[in-house]
## 1
Amino acid sequence: MKHINKFLLLAVVAAALVSCAEDYESGHTYSKPDPVLETEYLNSFGILKTYVDRAANPIFKLGAGVNASVFLKKEVDYSLRYANFDEVTPDTALTHKVAIKNDGTTDFSTASSFIKAAKASGVAVYGHTLCWHANQNNTYLNSIIQGKAYSGTTLIADFESNAIGDSYLMTGNSSATVMADPAKQSGNVLKVGTSATPASQSFPKFNITLPAGRVLGDYKTLTLDFNGPGNGGLYGSGMRVIINSNAAVVFGSPSSFGCPDGAWGRGKIVLDLTKLNLSDADKALTNFTMAVGSGTGSGNYYIDNITMKWQYNDVKSPAQKMEIITTALNQWIDGMMKANAGYVTAWDLVSEPMSDNDSYLLKSGATEANASSYFFWQDYLGENYARKAASAARTYFAQYGGKADDLKLFVDDYGLENGSSTKCDRLIQIIAQWEADGTTKIDGIGTQMHVVYSLDATKQAANEAGILSMFNKLKATGKLIRISGLSVDIADASGAAIKTANVTPEQQKAMAAYYYYIVQKYMEIIPSAQRYGITLSNPTDVGDKAYGLWTSTYNRKYTYIGFLQGLAGQPLNIAK
């Protein structure tokens, strides 16, 4: 290692000082400083993994979480894990978010590099994770189930195919007659009303047949050209649109849309068809009569180029979404199994599926906070989504060189030790449901165990009771049981976290005793054949979190002793 233990350096200096004192026969004696004595005591213990009785625990793996990029540097973090642990679990290197790009292309190079480095070192890799709501490429997954938006324009009437003098029916009095554009700007236009018989709240009617595939509900706007004088419909009481025999819907007057007095307002009038208050039956119409015009008692104006713009969203049905997401899941698992080529034999098939709310079974985008930050496979694949994931994992693992019997699939979650929650019971229940098809097999259960040692004795007693209850429930499943992310933090009696710098030696010893309790009870309650192993979330302190067996500068702590003595089945004896 490049790192030099600073306390070990002090010990060397102290030894040198004693030696010098003896050479000069000063008559003085020197005691080693307490930190040096403490370090010597902590360093007198062996490498962590040597405390596992392999004969009594033939399948047991001692593991640690690791940042993949740090591991690949092969510096102190790498050496600590290589020396002390059998197995490493990378943080995100084997996740969907890293391998799948926003456009759906794949890049498994991070996974391959990590696995290659671990394999070369003889360290096993635990696969985290195949189906998780977190660390998915939400952008890609959401994009493939989103309906595409399509739009276009349908011509209702431009009167160019009409002969001069053709007429259209009106809703009331007066007339609507095709004539040449008096402004000579376009060909034919429709004259509504006359000076002799103005249209009085009467509007031309158009019989409309929509193009194939379109329905009235697809249309969002109606646009037309208008030319009329101030006393002939430019102002009035507003434009009107009537569908069949429905009531007229009122819009602004032509002048409010910017049409000039006595001249063409080309494309100025744009009416919002979503304000028509159409019934579902109306929205489904493909043939209908539409009347449109200016609401005035003295209508005498021209209209031209009536068009309607449609917009259609290709919304995917639940069945279509299930098919799309199933394909995406299969492609992702296929790529990951190809990348590891059978080396990674244990995986979190599903991670953190259970809702924290006891009123629900599984997490869901409909009930979880910050749901938009996650992707919930179960929302699209159904409660039994793990069946699809398990089938894909076993199929592709074997396809790319893995021995089928070697593959172990786990379901992992946090908070199972919480005695006030039903999460552990619900997890066991859903696994039984998944396996009820007679095909799906879940080999093991992972309990993360991010726990807190409480300085409140009553709370701490409840914490320990919850752990005992959980281990007994997990034992009863007969499945492999793995502590998948163990960390012991510390809180004062009020529940406030105690930061690393403020943890006293006595509090650290209490944390060590809690580590001992957890490991010892795991070894005691879980039968040998079910003990897959224990993985530490992070073996060192990180920032204000004092949960490590080592400090952030890689010095052993009292927690190291508590953990190893629990592992070895030795009596707890932290003090020298």
Note: The chain is about 30% helix and 20% strand.
## 2
Amino acid sequence: MKYSLFFMLLISQLGLAQDIQTLPCYAQFKDLLTEWKVTGDWTIEMKDGLTKSMLVSTTENFGEWALAQKIEQGTVLARADERGRLEVTFKTEKCVKEVKPYVNDKISAQYFSDKEIANFIKKNKTGAIYVWSPRMSLSQNGLKEIKSASKALKLPVLMLMDKDVSDKEQVSLSKKMGKDVTRRVDSFDFKMRNVSMHFPALIVFKEGKIVSGVKYGYEKAEDYQRDLRSKLR
């Protein structure tokens, strides 16, 4: 899949709420945001250092994101997920829209994908997702702690492993630790949330929706219990 410059990997989230209404042609594209079920929690994302920035927001559907960027000729919007993106440009002169679809045909069956994560969330309604890496020993130690915490709270927890683990190491770890904790994840949604910035990473969902930002770092079971209770109130 060939990504345009508009859709390069976003590398740094500032976490500042932004007003989408300041972008050119807002009156013409606001209905599109409603159609895309955008939550409206816009933040600034930056790429290539400080040279380019855009606004991003989650939507009501796990794995789908909305992106918006001011360009010299107007505004570019995109609805993006692991399957690709729909890019819509509104040019300032008459705010006429141009639509370009881009398809991603590189989804690999060897990784746990957004589709599978969404199915887990849909099936369980409320629970947690724990992502770890064998490169960070504390995140591996945390598997026992999050299991204990989730068991005490009677919450389902999905345990996934860093995508960058090699095939050989994945097979070895799977034999040693079990398949339920050694499934490698390649998630567009997790990339957007910067999940791989540090391991372990914990995400909590309630009533089928993500309800927390990513929590990084190892904790004891009692601390995980406290965090989970707090996020699920």
Note: The chain has two domains: 20-103, 114-232.
